[in-house]
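Pinned message: reference record for Alpha-amylase
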Amino acid sequence: MLSRDDVASESDASWWRQAAVYQIYPRSFADADGDGLGDLAGIRSRIGYLSALHLDAVWLSPFYPSALADGGYDVDDYRDVDPRLGILADFDALVDDLHAAGIRMIVDIVPNHTSNRHEWFREALASPRGSAARARYIFRDGRGPDGAEPPADWTSAFGGPAWEPVGDGQWYLHYFAVEQPDLNWDNREVRDDFLRTLRFWSDRGVDGFRIDVAHGLAKKLDEHLPSQADLDALPKGDGGHPLWDRDEVHDIYAEWRTVFDSYSPPRTAVAEAWVQSHRVPRYASPEGLGQAFNFDLLEADFDADAFRRVVEDNLALAAQSGSSTTWVLSNHDVVRHATRYGLPEPANPKEKHGYAWLMSGGVSPVLNRERGLRRARAASLFVLALPGSAYLYQGEELGLQEVADIPAESRQDPAFFRNPGVEVGRDGCRVPLPWTTDRPSFGFGTAPPHLPQPDWFASVAVSVQEHDPDSTLSLYRKALELRHRLQTAEQLEWLDSAPDVVRFRRPNGWEVAMNFGAEPAELPAGTVLLASSPLAGRQLPAETTVWMQPS
Ligand code: GLC
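Predicted structure (tokens):
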């Protein structure tokens, strides 16, 4: 039997390089206190479930006090727990429980903006123009004689204007929701406060950080602001854009690195940086955050050449920075991959993410759930065998599909409210998990959940899947356990294969073949360790991945 070889002796300091990290969206994971909102005690009650997944780490999306204008990414206080989710002592107990189960803890840091309820923003509103309190944010005078026109015509990420008036002729920048004022990272006080936050959580035993909108902090806003059309026309890959991916952002992370490295083992970080590929290595460098998300597979077509190219490119990029790469198929911002893969190839590539289907309430185009799940299982097994870290999103281990038919009155995502009739937002991947088959919440808690769950959740509940050896949950459990045992040096060798098949071998002989095609292919020689769909004879079925070892 193959075994974990050269990595077994690696020190603690590199635990993250090939970690399986499970993203928990805490308000939708498990609700222990029966208020319809997931909480920290709920997560603690499911440590056994997390253990059985053989995870290396959990990444906790924001659990800080928040009005939930953007699902918790609008933070009122970076060094506390939302009272609806618990108190700091619950957080400490959760870290202890996870550590006792051999699982590390990564928390989300949201540095681009605070919420409008943060004490700094309240102070800024109560203070005059030109004050130190306003200097922590990005305030500008409006245009026109009485400042009634916005300083620029910019559009926010969630739709609608990106500048908001405060009533005295000044406006503030909020690149995201109006409740998320952008911080001014030229301000020393802002920088120092985040260093304090990083120490605060590191001191509480947090092992790493996921950095929200990591490419947005440094901004260069001159007296004369460009128009939205000017911004759109600017290149984004040369460090010169006024809002995105500026070179100076790395000065901020160099300071953070000194904090990370003052702990033993050093605290880790992973950048959410939507930047051009050649710009990723700086975020992932050891002098910077150390690792960066690679969303390329999430964006790739379900196609052998596309997948192989993405893997090659990202292994090369990781080698440039000396980091390991990261694989992501789903997260709390995108349509779940079991659904994306079940939708027909759109004529317009912009529709790839299934947004048109979401807009139709899940009616058009017709979703082929079975095919989507089959492909999702194959893609997940492929990803779990690649060199680097795998970031999984809660519910994908159940093969969950996106929930499309959430009534307007239940929707929460600001993207829905700011884009009437154009976007429905991201609530469909954030619906509370089904643990059992019973209403009111399929075991999520005792009260109706904060986002409504569809009837079909009963058929995919944990309680249904955990004793079924062919379920997606069983596949993930086996795959993650095997991955742990098989993990090896961060390399792969491509093997010859039919055009629709991608095949590679890891240094210890662990072999992987994925058939992207609609027809069966030949099963490579060797012993099958795991397959994403049932095998028949010496065939590798359509849209199926196998893990093998040489016999
Ligand atoms: C990131 C988060 C997303 C959030 C946005 C603003 O992209 O992943 O959920 O809405 O930042 O904080």
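Pinned by admin. Summary line: The chain has three domains: 4-111+189-476, 119-173, 491-549.
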